[in-house]
Design brief:
This protein has 12 helices and 35 strands. It is of the alpha+beta class. The longest helix has 22 residues. The protein starts with a strand and ends with a strand.
Amino acid sequence: MICVALPGLAISTEEGQLTGQGLEGFYRGGRRVLARCQVRVAGREPLAVQARMTAADQARFVGTLRASPQAGPDPDIVVERIRHADGTERITLHSSAQRPLRLPVEVALGTDLADLGAIASGTTGPEVPATVHDSGLRWSGPDGSSAVTADPPPADALASAGVLRWEFDLAPGGSTTVELRVRPDGAGPVRAVGRSATSPLTPAGGTAPAAATGDDPRVQALLRAGVEDLQSLLVRDPAHPTDTYLAAGAPWRCGLAPAEALAAARMALPLDTRLAAGTLRTLARTQLPIPDPRSGMIPGPRRDAGAHLPPGCTGTEATLLFPVLLAEARRWGLPEPEARELLPTAERCLTWLKATVRDGPYLRDPQPGGPARCETQAHAHRAALLGADLLDAFGRPGGAELRHWAQALRTAFRSDFWIDDRGGGRPAAALAPDGRPLPHFGAAAAHLLDTGLLGGGERAPGLLDKVQTEQLARRFGSPALDSGWGLRGLGVKEPGHNPFGHRVGAVRVQETAVAVAGLADAAYEKEAASLLRGVLAAAEAFGHRLPEMYAGEQRTEGSAPLPHPAACRPAATAAAAAILLLTTLAGIRPDAPAGTVTLRPMHSAPLGEIGLTGLRVAGAPFSVRVSRLGLAMVEEAAEGLQLGV
């Protein structure tokens, strides 16, 4: 159970007691400031009866015990613990005994002040000795220090044992509370970006946050959890505190991952464009300068691609996503001055693209000499078309050249990447450096359906022709790819398939959401609806907080999706995918510069009636409702915004 309000983090098991085993503990900035927090009442540990997340940054644990021998078998003390990612824990004792009770309470505390990476690899040292400090305990080591303060102050503090003690008198029906606050010694309380008034996901002007209603009750919980998870993962750029972006996920990846930050901000555009603007400004400052041979690229780490392909470069993906996010954020309502400020960075990304492909049609990844990956060509094609649209809008040169290259890429791709077989054919996963197509087929091909948004609510053309798109949709709807929980990373009949393989069989929520949106745009609603229902069922099994991936086991009657042990949860792309999935049902296609919005809903209405409120288009609240007949109606919009055809 992971409570997140970055830079704060609290990881617990369902028992509620923090024992210091595994990853348990409170963290600040990736360091464990408290590993153990074990409560004993009258010399005994409460029996855990319930544990649940009450918000993205908070969990509630309930335990019971019998303090009065005369009470019979029934417990008469309830111990409630509210644990918060900011380093606060409230321990409340409720008595239902028939007589007054005097209860000794002790809390055993300890920490190793270890880094999260060392904890994950099992290389932590022993606990650090404690000293009595103020109204609690303090720990100091070579890598830092932390302190716990208690309110009310303990009656006794034993530094050698790391124990705080109280004695409470509880009247019949009475309650008492102890609040513990843990943080690095000398540090102030955590000020989570997502909880501040300046958060890019906090509704402006006191308007209501994004919400969903409808025939399917799961949509409300999924959207709420997605928005909360995004808020919990918001991080400020330390050098520019007004700019915020999304960390990749907790607990493993609480830092900036450029490609995922851009992808998540893009899927979250219906909430507000402020997150996109902060992400773009943050990454613009990382762009490689002109003297560098990779000038114009936004750097990013390598990403494992499974057994069939070498690791890819997420910097390539980020560089191609930058102009796409800027172009689409402008359509959703990013103010023109902000878009103009970011335009030079987008131009340099597009210049890098042209310089890298040179006279060839394909962008190879990693550079130089890597394979031409299917999804990389999709990213590059989309960047060229949306980038050209962006350049034209601001009167900048280069749009015609980008469109010409995109046309050449389409022509070559439809021939070189298409593998004919008895099943009707499929796109290759990549072309090897020698031009040989690599035939394994999986969810990465979903990016071929993600063509991007142009003016007037129109979609950019894709790399596949109509017949090839139909065949791709049929493949995605087959049991080999559709697990019943979402889209598998690799088909079950492909060599090397592993249901837990994060690129060769596991269901990745982002790719499934991209497939749903692309299939719906291409009018393959049956296949889109099946994948959508699968993710909704998985979300319900995960308490509506989607992990970034889970095992691609086939769904059967009474089964549940198997969690992936290395998955981040919450994860930025999974949380943002919830927004993309639900807004796909309404098919919202805005063009704020033109003052229009077009609706292309899923006419099959796979979840029945659905209403979405608290979205933002052209800087104003936007609400839409889709009926059970698949008809969409705008219920709230910016003044003067016209409904396009």
